[in-house]
Amino acid sequence: MRVLGIETSCDETAAAVIDWSSKDSRARVLSDVVHTQAALHARFGGVVPELASRDHLQRALPVVDEALTLAGVSLAQLDGISVTRGPGLVGALLVGVQLARGLALGAGKPLVGVNHLEGHLLAALLSENAPRLPFLGLVVSGGHTSLYDVRGFGDIHALGHTLDDAAGEAFDKAAKLLGLPYPGGAHIDRLARTGDKAAHAFPRGLARRSRLQLDFSFSGLKTALLVHVQAHGVPDGQALADLCASYQEAICDALTSRALRAAEQLRASRLVVCGGVAANSRLRALAEERSARAGLELYLPDVKLCTDNGAMIAVAGAHRLARGESDSQVLADPGWRL
Question: Is residue 119 part of a domain?
Fold first, then answer.
């Protein structure tokens, strides 16, 4: 099957075409086009929903055209279309959903709406070394931090969520407090590479909860950083690198320790870490270290597949299209929980 995936849930306008084999659940990416709005939102220190929606309106159709051209296919040669219908910013989602509905209607192709988080979980299937189902999935992004038991296609069960801020949000807000450019997570990661992660003792949210606890919390960590900055000011040089490394370590420690706790409870043998924050170098290294120690098979999608993209949305919809599912009246659902 050749499937077009469209993603506009936040600040990336993305489209991709994949070849999907239902026989072995493997996908080959024929094209993957992403337009990022990072420069547009940088001066505001975060995503402005209205500006995001307007930019999607301008970029969505050219991005889809480019994806089809690079894949060497026309709309008529597609077997179906998949689009993100939630969760996300409602205006941004509406642009992608309405475009997908129009394309599907005009070309007479089946259409399915998929959950953005399912796309992140299944992005690992696009890697050369793809995991077999079932697996434990940790989704870490700017808006989401959750653990899932992925038993099969369409058979995904939530195990834990963040109770307040997502990990990516904690990174970005910390960067803003420290005067670092947007998006802040990448800048904290870069500075932390030369810093001492043991320089400051930052809290690990919910650390004293029962071992059955699989939720996350990062609001206390943010408050601890704020209190530190109010007391000592924003440092520079090596002191700033040490502060970033210690703050980053608190987030990555909490994420990986919860994931391994879940793996132990489920007796899982495979772990997938995905989402935009999965591009963080310390998170990747710590996940590899702890998974190896626990005897877990770890799967980390390529960095390009960690951030929002159309290929993951195409994969998330391909298995539904292969079963003959279709919904020409797909509606945006900004609060849709997986």
Answer: yes
